[in-house]
TrEMBL record:
Annotated ranges, domain Uroporphyrinogen decarboxylase (URO-D): 138-305
Superkingdom, natural source: Bacteria
Example GO molecular function: uroporphyrinogen decarboxylase activity
InterPro entries: Methanogen_methyltrans (IPR052024), UROD/MetE-like_sf (IPR038071), Uroporphyrinogen_deCOase (IPR000257)
GO aspect biological process, one term: porphyrin-containing compound biosynthetic process
Protein name as annotated: Uroporphyrinogen decarboxylase (URO-D) domain-containing protein
Amino acid sequence: MTAHLTQKENFLRVAHGEMPEYVPVSTYFGPDAPLMTMADPCILGSFRGPGGGIDPWGVTFVTTKEIEFAALPKPNDFILTDITKWRDVIKTPDYTGFDWESAAKADRKKYVQDPNQTAFVLSGYADIFQQFIGFMGFTEGLCAIYEETEEVEELFDYMLDHSLYITKNLLHYYKPEGYYLLDDTASKLNPFISPKLFKELLVPRYKKCLDLVRDEGVPIFYHNCGRCEDLMPSMVDIGVNVWDPAQTENDLVGIKEKFGSKLAISGGFEYAMPKTWPVVDEEEVREAVRDTYKKLAPNGGFIFNGAIASLDFQDPKVQEVNGWITDEAQKLSRTVYN
C-alpha cells in the first residue's frame, strides 16, 4: 500500500473520528518520531519529569529507579490533612507576568522536532482527581469524597478555575493539535470511585474545560489507566475522542462495538512476561500483535500502542521483545485497510 498521508495527518484522522489510510503505531520505544508530544506547557514546571520537583500547587513529586523515574507525589508528605480546612491551605498558583506568547513558541520548538510527523498535543492540567489525591493521599482523599462531599465539590470548583485558565491560554497561544486530559481514576481491577460519583463530581467539571476545546475543533485525548471502562460512556458523552492508553483489563472489543468511530482506542496491547523469562517465543509475541489487530483494527478507530509488561526499559531482552512488537505492528499497519 502506498500511503499519501504523513504520519501526523493519518494519526489526526483517527483522532477526529475519520478513517485513516493505515493504522497509526506509537513509537515511544523506538528511534522514530512520536505520533504526539503529550507534553506539559512550561508554565506548569518540570515536576512530572525524571527529576521530580514541586508542582504549581505546592505538592512535592519524587522519583525512583524502580518506576523508571516517573514522578509521583512524595509519600506521607501531604499538604492537606483536613478537607474542611482546604481554604486555609490550598491557594491558586500565581502566574503574574508570565509571557504566554514566548512560552508557546519555546514549547513548540522544544517538543516537536518534526512537525510533519508529530502532533502538538498538550496537557490542559485538568487532572482534578489526581491533583486532589496529591493534596491528601488516597486514604484521606477517598474518605473525604464519601464523608465530606460538599467540601470536596467546593475544592474541585476552586481547582477548576485554574484548569480553565490554563486551558483558555493554551488554546489561544499554543494552537495545539490535541488536548490531553490526564486523570487516572482507576486501578487495575476497578475505578477508585463509583461511576455514579465519577459522573456527579468529575464529569461536569471536565466538561467545562472540554467544551472550550471542542469549540476550537481540537481533538480530546483522555488518559486513564487500568480498568476504567465503566467510566468511558460519560467521557464520550462530553467529547472525548481518543482513550489513551486503553489497557487490556477492559473489554476493548465491547467498547469498540459500542462507540465505533466516536471513540478511538489507543493502546489495546500488552504482552505478559512469561514464566520462562528471559526465554521468549518470538513467533508467539508476533501472533499476539496480529490477534490484537484482528480484534481492534477493523473499520478504523485504532492506534496501536503496547509493549511487554515490564518497567525495566533498559533491559536488553525487554528492548528486544519490544522491538519484535513494534516491528510486527508496523508491518501490519499498512496492510489491514487494503
